[in-house]
Amino acid sequence: MRCERVQDLLLTDYTDGRLDEALRREVAGHIKSCGACRDFECVVREKAVAPLKHAEKIEPPAYLWERIRREVSAERRPAIDVYGALGSVAGTLRRGLEALTRIPKPALAFAMVAMLIIAVALARQPIERRSLNNYLNEQIDFMAGLDSDEANGAGVFDTSTGSGAEDLI
Q1: Does 10 reside within a domain?
Q2: Whole-angstrom distance, CA of residue 109 vs CA of residue 117
Q3: What is the CA radius of gyration of the chain?
Q4: Measured CA angle at 4 (ends 46, 55), to 5 deg
Q5: Does 135 map to a domain?
Q6: Residues in CB range of 9: below 8 A, 6 or more apart
Q7: How many whole angstroms separate alpha carbon 107 and alpha carbon 63?
């Protein structure tokens, strides 16, 4: 067995105890006869295994395992292009929708609420601008009306026509 293969197994299955018995014996025999691989095993145990020996085991979230399962099964499925370009577009759309289902539900809900708030805020701006424009146009028309009355000789602050009390009687 070559040293590269033994060192690869030392970093993975041999150290984890996941080799079948025949391969485990072959690796162990190589380590006994090869000083470089023996030194490599010591370094692996000291630097990679020992620090993690008493580490807390953390179970990954369910959505992560589901994503891994989907990715592995997608790699195993043969890609058959039955519909040509339409199949390509449909596949892209399907992958996009699958990506949405892989997002954790609280994060997806938060993103949807944030998008809804932004959409409402953006939709309100034209309404507010329209009402402001209407108000300003009304004021302009009012002021224009004042100017036209003054042009006809009826000033707004004209005091020569009387006090206005006679109009009330």
Answers
A1: yes
A2: 12
A3: 40
A4: 30
A5: yes
A6: 19, 23, 27
A7: 12
Say whether both 66 and 87 belong to one domain: yes
22 and 42: one domain?
yes
User: What's residue 150's pLDDT?
Assistant: 53
**Which distant-in-sequence residues (6+ apart) come within 8 Å of 75 by Cβ?**
none
Candidates 98, 107, 93; CA nearest to 73 is: 98
CB 48 within 8 A of CB 11: yes
Provide the terminal-to-terminal Cα distance of the chain, rounded to the nearest Å: 121
Q: What range defines the domain where residue 47 resides?
A: 3-52
Q: Which two tokens stand for residue 54?
A: 């008493």
- 94 shares its domain with 109: no
**Mean of per-residue pLDDT scores for the chain:** 77
Question: Which token pair is 110?
Answer: 């938060």
CA dihedral 93, 99, 104, 108 (to 10 degrees): -40
One domain, residues 35 and 9: yes
Triad 32, 33, 38: Cα angle to 5° = 55
Query: How many whole angstroms separate alpha carbon 12 and alpha carbon 18?
Result: 8
What digits encode the pLDDT tens for the residues 8-28? 998 888 888 888 999 999 999
pLDDT (tens digit per residue) in 130-164: 677 777 788 878 777 765 555 555 555 555 555 55
Kindly state whether residue 117 falls inside one of the protein's structural domains: yes
